[in-house]
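Hi all, long-time lurker, first post. I run a small reading group and we've been trying to get comfortable going from sequence to structure in the token notation. Rather than ask abstract questions, I figured I'd post a concrete chain and ask someone more experienced to write out its structure so we can walk through it together at our next meeting. Sequence below, copied exactly:
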Amino acid sequence: MKKTRICELLGIEYPIIQGGMTWIANAELAAAVSSAGGLGLISPNASMRLEDDLLANLRSQIRTAKRLTDKPFGVNLVVQIPGIEDLIGVVIEEGIKVVTTSAGNPAIYTPLLKEAGMTVLHLVASVRQARSAERSGVDAVIAEGYEAGGHNGLDEIPTLVLVPQVVDAVSIPVVAAGGIADARGFAAALALGAEGVQMGTRFIATHECIAHGNFKDGIINATDTGTMVTGRRLAPTRGLKNDFLAKVAEMEQQGATAEELFAFIGFAPSRIGQLKGEMQEGELYCGAISGMISEITSAGDVVRNIADGYSGVVASLR
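-- Answer (accepted) --
Happy to help. Here is the structure in token form:
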């Protein structure tokens, strides 16, 4: 397995990062990925109920991960989330050394995070965002293509063309995200100039992930056309096709306002889909790569299979 600057930066064996997926990036998943040599990430609201305390939940998840692994792991922070300053306070108090940030201006909180001794990676969806993140002082950028699950960039740039342009535009390491699930995708990302990968959807279909079994089975049974993107007038979001997303698409086609769409989508559908397994009325964030995932396995095996398979993929190209 090729060692890159990402390995050195994060203190990990393999340049493989697990996505910080809202609701389901729990301590057990993060610890399993980290113990296997990658970098696991915790979402502050992983596994929590709507009425639970977000700060207490994050602190509990961090402490659980510390009990489960002595390897590095990190926390994913959404910059625009209400109460972000308090979440940063918890991360600092708990001694977290790696943070990934997304959905907001990295210039706002990167100095604070760096002052606390953290390594910061920021998620970007364009060259402009990558350059801005580098100027803000982040240590690396995660270039996420439009194939990825969850929220995507407004410009709909696929990973294949986004990553090399970002690599050419910045001097800091670039991590590729979107459309990666195995050693072939990993090797392709490195061929594009990336120095690591971030994967979310592949780690949903693992034993350690707290996602509902219905959701995992939905990914396993998905075809190449099994996902769709909605919310292009708000923030593009990719998930498994179901009645909920079909209704969102219908509202968009009929000219619904942003306010009407926000009112319909609300906050709970992503939770009831991912944690409760409501397959028709829930929001099931996952990437187009779902059609390539055929089994539920351990998170450690996902990492090890990529590490073991990389050399074979490279050799087949010679």
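A couple of things your group might point at:
The chain has a mean pLDDT of 94.
The domain at 5-210+295-312 is CATH 3.20.20.70 (TIM Barrel).
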